[in-house]
């Protein structure tokens, strides 16, 4: 999938019928389960996370498949309207200092069996989809046990009392955007309390583009931070603590461009924040949540095109989505490796035969001068990325524009053909 930038079985098999049949049998095999595929996500990530401060970013994306009344493929409803598909909840690990992707940690993939008739507040947490925010983080405690520290980062949907009251522990922190205003333990309003905190500083934050309708821009922000105490909300389990102490970090854009909604992030965290520098660090960590949005983009229209799959059953689509999520994470690692930010091994994206092929190719893409030599440690992901980028047409000079996804796509297509020949040569 990484090499072909596709989830289409016919493309993955290179048009060979025997290979198409093998892929189909794999997905149909009852011994191949979604749970086992997801459990395999974390194995390489656990090794890469050793001794690091890891940002464990989690989010959910809807995968909308084309269906008709006669061909629903066993898929349940998603979102609004008549759309049918599945949901992918994934947790992606990043190095908190450098921002490089370490891989997937855990998650959940499901399709809804039908509409729930029992009111949300009348259901136990285990019977709600929101339970995934807690169970995925609990799994992260096992996968990332070797990390020096873990900070779980999530958006507004995960802001509920049970998470704050049950998950934090030594070296295991939470960072989440606030969902809504609420009453605090002292009777005040959260939003009013945040607005009343003293301004701790100002800074310019570069915001990434989020599509044609939302281009990248610079935002001048004011910063406030302080401690707050949350009360247990109605509907929360009675065994949970009645109060939870958190830090509120709030940044507000005072003078946005004309016609643009001002940026305002209210962030809850379990980290102690004693200075403006520490508060800005919280903002910087939350900004890295953008990487998991890129993961879902790579899975869908801007990469693997998972939503175009024509597999005929929900069971097979769920398994395909689990594999595609892993492939999307590897693609992100490969693109990031062009900058040499980390020293992850090439084995995260390439098998043993492919690494041997890369070593054979390496001298053919290097030039005679030092500037034209591969600067990265041999057999690292950055080393492999440098070779693939050259195969895609990048000249490698520091003054040149860094290779982008299109360059890597061309390089991977060339390399896959070469690796197939290499494998045949060494049967």
Task: Outline the structure in words.
With 427 residues, this protein is α+β, with helices and mostly antiparallel strands. Strands 1, 2, 3, 4, 5, 6, 7, 8, 9 and 10 form a 10-stranded mixed sheet that branches. It has 12 helices and 10 strands. It has helices spanning 9-12, 17-28, 34-48, 131-143, 161-166, 190-196, 276-287, 290-299, 314-336, 352-365, 381-391, 405-425, and strands spanning 53-65, 76-77, 84-95, 101-110, 149-154, 172-177, 201-207, 217-231, 243-253, 264-269. The longest helix is centred in the C-terminal third of the chain and has 23 residues, at 314-336. The model has no long low-confidence stretch (mean pLDDT 88). Helix content is 35%, strand content 21%. The protein folds into 2 domains: 23-335, Alpha-Beta Complex (Transposase Inhibitor Protein From Tn5, Chain A, domain 1), CATH 3.90.350.10; 345-425, no CATH class.
Helix count, DSSP H or I runs of 4 or more residues: 12
Which structural class do the helices and strands define? Answer: alpha+beta
Low-confidence stretches: none
Cα distance spanning the termini: 23 Å
Question: What name is given to the CATH topology of the largest domain?
Answer: Transposase Inhibitor Protein From Tn5, Chain A, domain 1
Overall, the morphology is globular
Write down the Rg.
23 Å
Tally of DSSP β-strands? 10
The largest sheet is: 10 strands, mixed
The CATH homologous superfamily of the largest domain is named Transposase Inhibitor Protein From Tn5, Chain A, domain 1
Summed up, the domain count is 2
CATH architectural group of the largest domain: Alpha-Beta Complex
Share of helical residues: 25-40%
Strand fraction equals 15-25%
Q: What's the SSE pattern?
A: HHHEEEEHEHEHEEEEHHHHHH
CATH top level of the largest domain is Alpha Beta
Mean pLDDT comes to 88
So what's the oligomer here? single chain
């Amino acid at each position: 999938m990484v090499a072909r930038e596709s989830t289409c079985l016919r493309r993955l098999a290179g048009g060979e019928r025997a290979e198409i049949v093998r892929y189909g049998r794999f997905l149909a095999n009852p011994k191949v389960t979604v749970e086992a595929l997801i459990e395999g996500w974390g194995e390489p990530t656990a090794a890469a996370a050793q001794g690091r401060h890891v940002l464990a970013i989690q989010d959910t994306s809807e995968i909308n498949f084309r269906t008709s009344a006669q061909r629903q493929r066993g898929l349940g409803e998603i979102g609004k309207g008549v759309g049918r598909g599945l949901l992918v909840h994934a947790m992606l690990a990043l190095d908190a200092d450098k921002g490089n992707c370490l891989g997937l940690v855990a998650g959940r993939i499901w399709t809804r069996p039908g509409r729930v008739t029992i009111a949300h507040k009348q259901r136990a947490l285990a019977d709600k989809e929101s339970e995934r925010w807690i169970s995925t983080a609990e799994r992260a405690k096992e996968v990332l046990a070797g990390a020096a520290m873990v900070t779980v980062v999530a958006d507004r949907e995960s802001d509920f009392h049970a998470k704050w009251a049950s998950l934090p522990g030594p070296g295991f922190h939470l960072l989440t955007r606030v969902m809504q205003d609420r009453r605090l333990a002292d009777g005040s309003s959260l939003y009013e309390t945040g607005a009343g905190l003293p301004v701790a500083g100002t800074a310019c934050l570069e915001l990434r583009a989020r599509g044609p309708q939302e281009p990248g821009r610079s935002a001048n922000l004011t910063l406030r931070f302080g401690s707050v105490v949350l009360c247990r909300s109605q509907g929360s389990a009675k065994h949970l603590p009645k109060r939870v102490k958190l830090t509120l970090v709030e940044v507000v854009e005072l003078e946005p461009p004309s016609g643009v909604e001002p940026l305002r992030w209210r962030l809850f965290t379990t980290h102690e924040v004693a200075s403006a520098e520490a508060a800005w660090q919280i903002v910087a960590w939350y900004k890295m949540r953008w990487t998991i949005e890129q993961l879902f983009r790579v899975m869908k229209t801007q990469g693997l095109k998972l939503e175009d799959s024509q597999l005929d059953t929900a069971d097979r689509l769920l398994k395909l989505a689990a594999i595609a999520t892993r492939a999307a994470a590897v693609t992100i690692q490969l693109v990031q490796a062009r900058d040499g930010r980390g020293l992850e091994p090439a084995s995260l994206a390439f098998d043993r035969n492919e690494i041997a092929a890369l070593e054979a190719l390496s001298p053919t893409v290097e030039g005679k001068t030092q500037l034209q030599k591969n600067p990265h440690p041999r057999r690292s992901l950055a080393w492999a990325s440098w070779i693939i980028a050259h195969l895609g047409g990048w000249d490698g000079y520091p003054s040149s524009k860094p290779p982008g996804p299109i360059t890597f796509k061309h390089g991977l297509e060339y390399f896959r053909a070469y690796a197939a020949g290499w494998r045949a040569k060494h049967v």
